[in-house]
Amino acid sequence: MTEEQRRNATGTLYVVATPIGNLEDITYRAVRILSEVDLVAAEDTRHSRKLFARFDIHKPLVSYHNHNEQERQKELVQRLQAGEDIALISDAGTPCIADPGYRLIAACHTAGITVVPIPGPSALITALSAAGVSTERFAFEGYLPQRAKARADLLRQLNGEQRTLVFYEAPHRLAATLADLADIMGVERPLVVARELTKLYEEFFHGTVAEALMRFTQEPARGELVLIIPPSSQGPQMNVRDALRKLLNESDLSRREAVKLIAREYGLPSSDVYRESLSLTGEQGLDE
Ligand code: SAM
């Protein structure tokens, strides 16, 4: 069978991006493909039914998620080989970007089945596009490990990275991640938290790790978010005294909290940093 004959005989797998919040972000092409295929493989069929209702799409849905990937893959490849066209979608954004899909796509390539991407939104690119940081080179790290040690180890490894770092993070883990960042990358490191993109409460928070800690421990983050950390500037690290002064002057942190952060960041005993902080007392703007 020639390549062309095989292409005609087998179906096509369309990898279709869907909105990350605002349903108007779906493309004309995505709506057409989803309306034309024989079957749609979706991460959560109940979730995708809402999208289908909004765009008047009436196609059978089957689930394809992390827990049934293997068995479902066999069935989907067989149906594609039998000539059916199938669309793969995830709950939001682009399939395979921190979402299931790559194994099915790899199996299709191996089986000689045509795979066609239908591009559209992804939180990663949406966040980077409007964060106002250098995007010339970036590294997408997906979700940080949940285990504290693994997370800290990875952040340590990434500390000298010269590309902009991008993470997906769950809102209830943000404060813990920021505390690790304070420890490892320093309280002065700038970052962006891109929250609820394309939705009603969309927000780009710009600040240092210390400022983000203050904001997101006082008022825990809500909704979905992307954490962006541009490379650290090449300049020398601030000395302990200046860093303490800046933190005490510009944040609402108590002396104890500021001392703890700086001691961790500089790997110094808290008692030394505390003494340094006392010697700052009396400077303009700093209270007892
Ligand atoms: N495949 C999706 C994509 O292309 O962006 C990502 C799926 S991943 C399971 C979900 C994560 O993406 C969320 O935890 C959050 O970090 C990020 N995310 C998704 N939608 C978002 C939004 N509207 N605003 C900010 N972050 C979002």
Describe, in short, the structure shown.
This protein is of the alpha/beta class and 288 residues long.
What does this structure look like?
The chain has 288 residues and is an alpha/beta fold. It folds into three domains: 3-120, Cobalt-precorrin-4 Transmethylase, domain 1, CATH 3.40.1010.10; 124-229, Methyltransferase, Cobalt-precorrin-4 Transmethylase, Domain 2 (2-Layer Sandwich), CATH 3.30.950.10; 240-278, no CATH class. The chain is built from twelve helices and ten strands. The protein has helices at 3-9, 28-36, 45-54, 69-81, 102-110, 123-131, 148-158, 174-184, 209-218, 240-250, 255-266, 270-280; strands spanning 12-16, 39-42, 61-63, 86-89, 114-118, 138-143, 164-169, 190-195, 203-208, 225-229. The strands form two sheets. Strands 3-2-4-1-5 form a five-stranded parallel sheet, with helices on both faces. It has a five-stranded mixed sheet with strand order 6-7-10-8-9, with helices on both faces. α4 runs parallel beside α5, α7 crosses α8 (174-184) and α10 packs across α12. The longest helix has 13 residues, at 69-81. The protein starts with a helix and ends in an 8-residue tail after the last helix. The structure holds S-adenosylmethionine. S-adenosylmethionine is lined by residues 20-21, 90, 92-94, 97-99, 122-124, 168-170, 194, 196-199, 224-226.
